[in-house]
Amino acid sequence: MAFELRKNLSLIATVAVIIIAGIGGYYLINLKQSEYPVSTFISVSYKWGVGDTLLNSYNSATSDYQYLNNRDSLIKTKVKLRANNIIFIHSRANELDLWNLPNVIANKNADLKSDKVLRYEMVFTYEHKTKKIIFLTDYDENPSIAIAADELQKVIKQTIDEVEDRYSKP
């Protein structure tokens, strides 16, 4: 009788651990979800450059991509992001706490249209909300915000470049 109890106790303990792990995993996944799910994501717009006209730009809604190359020639092309690219950008933006980043990330009294400082403009459009971030690369007031904004723009740029390379190779 004691042997059967030990055998059943082991089985009960195993089932309990599996149930606890499942419930814990479920809540961790739900806690990590953003307030705006990827299904409501419409587009991302990304511009960069100096001065008042940002010639380098990408818009995922239209797939229009233009940039200045090494010879200062304006290259215009179409780059279509796949669903997995959109999901990647959305999830990285949420990891970097997109909705808590300030709309303008620049030092006090900074000229947003300065021709000496590289500027990035990122616009995330969801069904019911839009987040626009202007980031000047010389920002030095809050390092954690600067790191998050820099990482966000790098994720977008890297994703666009990878997709462009995929389409441009024969």
Task: Briefly summarize what is shown.
By secondary structure, the chain is of the alpha+beta class. It has 2 domains: 1-32; 38-168, Mago nashi protein (2-Layer Sandwich). 41% of the residues lie in helices and 24% in strands.
Keywords:
single chain; Mago nashi protein; 7 strands; alpha+beta; 3 helices; 170 residues
If you had to describe this structure to a student in words, what would you say it looks like?
The protein is α+β, with helices and mostly antiparallel strands and 170 residues long. The chain folds into two domains: 1-32; 38-168, Mago nashi protein (2-Layer Sandwich). It has three helices and seven strands, in the order αββββαβββα. The protein has a seven-stranded mixed sheet with strand order 4-3-2-1-6-7-5, covered by helices on one side. Strand 1 and strand 2 (56-59) form a beta hairpin. Helix 2 (83-95) runs antiparallel to helix 3 (143-168). The protein starts with a helix and ends with a helix. The mean pLDDT is 86.
